[in-house]
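Tokens for chain A. Residues wanted.
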């Protein structure tokens, strides 16, 4: 038998091996192969039991995700799993690596399961916008009960072998590392014990609480924030109360409903983009070592980056200006671990030991001499940055990489004040830096390829999503953010309440609205940024931030002053609107001579999306982002963009570029400077193309 599935026999036990690297995904050829192998097993009079294994690193990790959205190809995975279960002789799945999604469904089709101790199993389909569609929603609750099945399927979490054994998902654990031998030994024992075929479909689902499914549906709806398949997972699991044949038909209907929804396409786009984003021109260069990192500045950012590095196993030298600042920096680092200690994830002693081993504190730049990478996280002005870079250039060893954590500033200008611009890059972390997953890797005109590759290596080590960005004001994320924040401000001046805008944006799927975000970040940041750009602002552009300046003057800076757009009395993290806001905005409109008009939430979102898409198209068109998918990943991992919409570029494709361009042209009549259409957007519409076409180019 050729192809990705082979049938062989070891004495009286058949071995069915799935070999489809890298993760043994269950594409058509594999499904064909399993069907043929099961037929061979049934026909093989000398085979008393069969063991299914995955070659290489894992048991199948799921259906082949790249087949989604294409016409279905027989045999369906459901029929493959049914075929395994219907075999007249016992079939054992011997699991190692990650048996996920369809991979676990194949194992659940088998009559018995043995897992390596290090194996993980799970049904992560929820993260791809679908439901387990090959019997997973029907067999899992039969094996482990409805409650555990709902928890496992709606979270999509990976379950370790020991827990899987406890739950009843697997029957035995082996520690030998040899899946074939373990499977054969299990099969022999089964035969010796007189045990044989045991079909999960013959079991009944146990539910202790009759109202369980209604409660589970409400909980899933509350958690879903617009993502539709969570509730559908519960609906499908409820169908396990039916006879299996009927349940499987219902599961298929629900699977198809989810599969055909744009949310599936968006979530699959996010899955592949999360991996593709690291495929940059410099990826082939060899990264430099990253054993010791220097971090200049122990404020919120510096302390967050320090914690991220330590968590990645990298030693850190943190430098501050004087002993007092060093002590504050250390306290900031410790604060990042406070909840880990209180929640029992580590003891105080473990924390102290880890920091003793991994963190060196100093008030002298000389301590940075041996660092492989030095990241400055100091005050965000060009003068200060240049001063710091001149100093570290004089101290850093040859080959050390010098990085700035700037969010806006010109990396080339910073690099120019060193004698080694090829070793300089931007590493833009997002606050809190030990938690937020985005890392913008800003590549200057002279940055060497291996320096960029080291940036991506750092992202990998820190389990972050590194996104390559070119040099411009705000790089990818903040540059686009600047535009949709501005359009939100314009809408406020023109008549929309900031509260309605926040509500509309939350309903779109963001965790918080733009004005809540301003309150969270501190309105002084935007104010200082505007003042910093006073001399260079395009005089043709509408200002739009007068009411924000008034708020700054009033000391309404957001959460840090307990009052901003919202009232955070007593240090609360959320609160009712600040009653002073609307009169202040009305006064601002009067001063500007604006007669306010009504906005619907739909119109708010139209403008928000138009501004975001237009600027993102400029960012891609100018080569600041390599591809639209880089914008999408920056938005998902740094700005709270709803994953189930895939990112602003994926969403724009879904809405239709022609319709967004039509909106932009309509808004352009009001303000030709702000709404000048992006040349790339115009070109794509003229050519009848989508942003997605540029991802594969
Ligand atoms: C499903 O099963 C539906 C069924 O219920 C019903 C159907 C009717 N397909 O992540 P990595 C690629 S839905 C195609 O870098 P790791 C991946 O893109 C599926 N390709 O490795 C990458 O390609 P490249 C449910 C896949 O070691 C390469 O393999 N299953 C698939 O960090 C290596 O991947 C899941 O959702 C796939 N299923 O992590 C599991 N999986 O090298 C999805 C991976 O070109 N997979 N690729 O960039 C994972 O979670 C991780 O890949 C895994 C390995 C944990 C397995």
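Reply:
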């Amino acid at each position: 038998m050729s192809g990705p599935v082979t049938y062989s026999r070891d004495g009286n036990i058949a071995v069915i091996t799935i070999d489809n690297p890298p993760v043994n995904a269950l594409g058509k050829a594999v499904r064909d192969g399993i069907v043929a192998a099961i037929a061979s097993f049934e026909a093989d009079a000398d085979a008393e039991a069969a063991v299914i294994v995955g070659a290489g690193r894992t048991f199948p990790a799921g259906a082949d995700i790249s087949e989604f959205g294409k016409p279905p190809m027989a045999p369906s995975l459901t029929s493959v799993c049914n075929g395994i279960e219907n075999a007249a002789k016992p079939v054992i799945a011997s699991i190692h690596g990650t048996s996920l999604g369809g991979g676990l469904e194949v194992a659940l089709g088998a009559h018995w399961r043995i897992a390596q101790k290090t194996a993980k199993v799970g049904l992560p389909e929820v993260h791809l916008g679908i439901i387990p569609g090959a019997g997973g929603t029907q067999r899992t609750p039969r094996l482990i009960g409805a409650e555990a099945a709902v928890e496992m399927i709606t979270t999509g979490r990976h379950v370790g072998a020991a827990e899987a054994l406890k739950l009843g998902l697997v029957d035995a654990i082996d520690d030998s590392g040899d899946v074939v031998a373990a499977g054969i030994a299990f099969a022999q024992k089964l035969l010796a014990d007189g045990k044989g075929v045991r079909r999960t479909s013959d079991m009944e689902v146990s539910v202790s609480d009759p109202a369980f499914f209604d409660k589970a549906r409400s909980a899933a709806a509350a958690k879903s924030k617009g993502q539709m398949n969570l509730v559908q997972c519960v609906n499908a699991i409820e169908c396990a109360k039916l006879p299996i044949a009927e349940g499987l038909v219902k599961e298929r209907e629900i699977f198809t409903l989810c599969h055909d929804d744009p949310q599936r396409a968006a979530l699959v786009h996010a899955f592949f983009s999360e991996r593709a984003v690291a495929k940059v021109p410099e990826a082939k260069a060899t990264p430099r070592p990253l054993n010791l990192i220097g971090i200049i500045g122990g404020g919120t950012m510096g302390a967050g980056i320090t914690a991220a590095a330590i968590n990645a196993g990298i030693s850190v030298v943190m430098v501050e200006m004087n002993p007092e600042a060093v002590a504050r920096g250390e306290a900031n680092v410790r604060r990042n671990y406070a909840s880990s200690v209180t929640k029992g994830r580590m003891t105080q002693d473990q924390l102290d030991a880890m920091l003793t081993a991994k963190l060196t504190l100093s008030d002298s730049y000389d301590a940075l001499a041996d660092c492989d990478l030095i990241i400055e996280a100091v005050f965000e002005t060009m003068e200060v940055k240049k001063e710091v870079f001149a100093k570290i250039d004089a101290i850093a060893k040859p080959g050390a990489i010098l990085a700035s954590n700037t969010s806006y500033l010109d990396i080339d200008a910073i690099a120019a004040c060193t004698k080694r611009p090829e070793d300089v890059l931007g590493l833009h972390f997002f606050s809190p830096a030990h938690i937020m997953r985005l890392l913008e890797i800003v590549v200057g005109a002279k940055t060497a390829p291996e320096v960029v590759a080291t940036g991506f290596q750092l992202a990998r080590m820190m389990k972050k999503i590194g996104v390559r960005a070119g040099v411009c004001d705000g790089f990818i994320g903040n540059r686009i953010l600047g535009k949709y924040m501005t359009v939100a401000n314009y809408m406020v001046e023109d008549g929309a309440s900031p509260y309605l805008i926040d509500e509309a944006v939350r309903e779109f799927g963001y965790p918080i609205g733009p004005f809540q975000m301003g309150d969270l970040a501190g309105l002084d940041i935007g104010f200082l940024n505007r003042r910093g750009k006073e001399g260079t602002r395009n005089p043709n552009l509408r200002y739009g931030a007068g009411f924000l300046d008034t708020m700054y003057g009033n000391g309404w800076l957001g959460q840090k002053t307990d009052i901003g757009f919202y009232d955070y009395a007593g240090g609360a993290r959320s609160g009712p609107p600040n009653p002073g806001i609307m009169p202040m905005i009305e006064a601002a409109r009067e001063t500007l001579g604006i007669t306010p008009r009504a906005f619907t939430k739909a119109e708010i979102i139209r403008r928000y999306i138009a501004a975001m898409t237009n600027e993102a198209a400029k960012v891609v068109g100018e080569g600041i982002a390599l591809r639209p998918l880089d914008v999408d990943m920056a938005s998902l991992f740094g700005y709270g963009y709803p994953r189930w919409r895939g990112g602003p570029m994926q969403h724009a494709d879904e809405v239709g570029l022609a319709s967004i361009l039509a909106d932009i042209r309509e808004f352009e009549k009001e303000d030709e400077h702000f709404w000048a259409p992006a040349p790339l957007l115009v070109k794509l519409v003229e050519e009848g193309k989508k942003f997605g076409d540029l991802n594969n180019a």
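Residues 302 and 622 are 31 Å apart (CA to CA). The pocket of (S)-3-Hydroxyhexanoyl-CoA is lined by residues 22-23, 25, 61-66, 77, 98, 100-102, 105, 124-125, 128, 132-134, 136, 272, 275 (CB under 6 Å).
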